[in-house]
């Protein structure tokens, strides 16, 4: 194992396989595998972190896998796994604010901009949301438009809907039945 490479591995979820990686300091990405394919994801990560990537195991990946399982069971509301993110100062500010959105709650892009002291910066908030590499852990799925509609989630609106319903208390088993019905 090279200390400079990002270690990654697949993680199961009820919404499809995810891929996660760690720098060693913390989880640096968690993405849906079908979001552009593994090679595209790894290329984006390598460019952002200016490091190579390689398959591997790490205690942060183990902890993330356990926490994700508990999250999808409806038993975890706050992630404690260490994270290591890199982005512009504004992106990092948006991501910190995303982590302040309580489990089971949503905010609009406008509310996010106001909280950041940047009224009218909804589009910039949306771009920073889209630049988030840590799906679920940094809960960009909790941001909705001013009309209360769901859009702008890289993992797909159906996943965003599932995550919000899970956090609203819909039983995971019921959500699985909904997904199966939606796919038919």
Q: Can you tag this structure with a few keywords?
A:
6 strands, alpha/beta, single chain, globular
Question: What is this entry, summarized?
Answer:
With 184 residues, this protein is an alpha/beta fold.
Task: Describe the SSE topology.
Blueprint: E1 6-11, E2 18-22, E3 27-32, H1 38-49, E4 53-55, H2 59-72, H3 89-99, E5 107-108, H4 109-115, H5 122-130, E6 143-144, H6 157-167, H7 172-183
Parallel strand pairs: 1-4, 5-6
Antiparallel strand pairs: 1-2, 2-3
Helix pairs in contact: 3-5, 4-5
What does this structure look like?
The protein has helices at residues 38-49, 59-72, 89-99, 109-115, 122-130, 157-167, 172-183; strands spanning 6-11, 18-22, 27-32, 53-55, 107-108, 143-144. It starts with 5 loop residues before the first strand and ends with a helix. Helix 3 (89-99) packs across helix 5 and helix 4 (109-115) crosses helix 5 (122-130). Strands 3-2-1-4 form a four-stranded mixed β-sheet, sandwiched between helices. It has a two-stranded parallel ribbon with strand order 5-6. It has 184 residues and is an alpha/beta fold.
pLDDT averaged residue by residue: 90
The major β-sheet equals: 4 strands, mixed
- Assembly state here? single chain
Structural class: alpha/beta
Record the strand order, biggest sheet.
3-2-1-4
DSSP helical segment count: 7
Helix content: 40-55%
Shape: globular
Overall strand count: 6
Radius of gyration: 16 Å
Low-confidence stretches: none
Rounded to the nearest angstrom, the distance between the terminal CA atoms is 44 Å
Beta-strand share of residues = 5-15%
The H-and-E topology, N to C, reads as EEEHEHHEHHEHH
């Amino acid at each position: 194992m090279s200390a400079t490479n990002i270690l990654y591995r697949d993680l199961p979820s009820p919404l499809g396989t995810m891929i996660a990686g760690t720098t060693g300091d913390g989880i640096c990405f968690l993405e849906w595998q079908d979001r552009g394919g593994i090679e595209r994801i790894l290329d984006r990560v390598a460019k952002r972190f200016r490091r190579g990537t390689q398959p591997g195991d790490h205690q942060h990946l183990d902890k993330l896998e356990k926490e994700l399982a508990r999250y999808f069971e409806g038993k975890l509301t706050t992630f404690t796994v260490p994270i290591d993110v890199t982005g512009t100062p504004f992106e990092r500010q948006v991501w910190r604010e995303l982590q302040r959105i309580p489990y089971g709650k949503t905010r609009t892009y406008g509310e996010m901009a106001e909280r950041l002291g940047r009224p009218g910066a909804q589009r910039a908030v949306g771009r920073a949301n889209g630049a988030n590499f840590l799906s679920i852990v940094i809960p960009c799925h909790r941001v909705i438009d001013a009309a209360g509609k769901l859009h702008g989630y890289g993992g797909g609106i159906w996943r965003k809907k599932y995550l919000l319903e899970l956090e609203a208390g819909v039983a995971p088993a019921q959500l699985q039945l909904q997904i199966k019905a939606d796919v038919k």
